[in-house]
Amino acid sequence: MSFPRSIFTISSLTLVSRFFGFIRDVLIASILGAGLLADVFLVAFKFPNLFRRLFAEGGFNAAFVPYYSKLTKERDYFAAKVFAEQAFSLLLWALLLFVIVIEIIMPWALMVFVPGFVGSPKRFDLAVSLTRITLPYLVFISLVALASGILNTIGKFAAAAATPILLNLSLISSVLWLASYTDTPAHALAWGVALAGVLQLSWILFWLARSGIILIPRLPKITSDIKVLARKFFPAVLGTGVYQISILIDTVFASTLPAGSISYLFFADRINQLPMGVIGVAVGTAILPVLSRQLAAEQHEAAIYSQNRAIEFSMFFTIPSAMAIIILSEPIISTLFQRGAFDVAQTIATSDSLKIYALGLPAYVLIKVLSPNFFARGDTLTPTKIGVLSISANVVLNFVFIGAFQHLGIAAATAISAWINAVLLYLVLVFRRHVHMDSRLLKRFMRILFSSTIMGGCLYLCSEAFWTGVFSDQGVRIIVLLLLVSIGFILFVGTAILSYGLKISELREVFSMSNKSGN
After folding, report:
1. What digits encode the pLDDT tens for the residues 355-373?
2. Where are the beta strands (DSSP E) in 31-94?
């Protein structure tokens, strides 16, 4: 499958998942609002997901995929399968031990994760109960991440990209039908998370078996290949998990603020995650095996070309998305969430957070796009050092901003630290001559920026003209938001085509089955 088509496949299925994710979030916001129950469930939901994104999707995949790809090229199918089985077994037993220990010490673990909850016994005890229900999800979804890495390596992206849809469907079903049988709707959602893990692992193992790969859990063995994996894994955790660690830091600080602060940041981050997931994660996922293969074959110029096209592709969607989100933040939040227990004040607080998060959106995506260049070369240490620096900056900035700006200061600290991370990653790659901006990327970037600015100015004028006075009617809100989004899309694409920031002929490349990444 070609690189552009791989991105298109992952992005399309991610978009479907995000659609169901928004339905899920609308239901959560409507039923739980942005108060105590919502804060507590979101903590229980974030806890296993944090470790999943850090250890499995982040560090483990960043270390596993390049080495697995190398084995498939240098040795044979059997050697690669043995390595995958060893990694699968090691991850399974390590996670089971980790979950058992954390279940036992959960109250102390949450004292670190949400220290602000300790002063409210009801909120803290509920958080402990719900997190104990959701934590086993970590085992299932981490194994899903490893199996997905194998499928991605052999060029089969669709099954893995579709997996998150099952999580959203499980949560939607739980809040609609299970809530009447549990103590609170938050309990129903927690059980929905646990069930989703079983469904997702069953799904991905089925497709892995369809590809002729059956992973049988065994007692883990510390072989030479596993030692190499371990050496690369731990640095990769920080290198890939900067954004997730930043969100953890946000949660820690937000737990010390008034009730609702965690929810404001969560719902704002969910909107911000849409282009980040559809574009950033898709490009990052697709480019890692591409770069791994090209560098293993010593096709260095092809690797630089692939990296430039990945940056170009991601910025084409990310820069206008960030501008549109900033301008339309209040219409977006109002339309999606303002109903039931989610009121106007919560809409304003959440939309203000979204504006600030969106300022860092291009940086979040660039981190996802640039990091694979290091991992494909077996270098997990450099992104780690840069990650530690940006995380340290995030902590310092939180202390500086939180007193005066409350939850908005937390969002600002995250956005600024993301830019520090992205800029440093790019500068190091340039210094090492692993990437350089070719003339096509420079010209396209300037034209994308120009087109985005034209779109942004027109969109601001249209939003001022059309949005005022329609807040009370949900149907009107939906129609006006769709109208504004359509105007923004048409303006950007039209301007991009006229300024040659986008060529019609290149749209066909997305659907092409020929790999042009090295031409």
Report:
1. 999 999 999 889 888 988 8
2. none
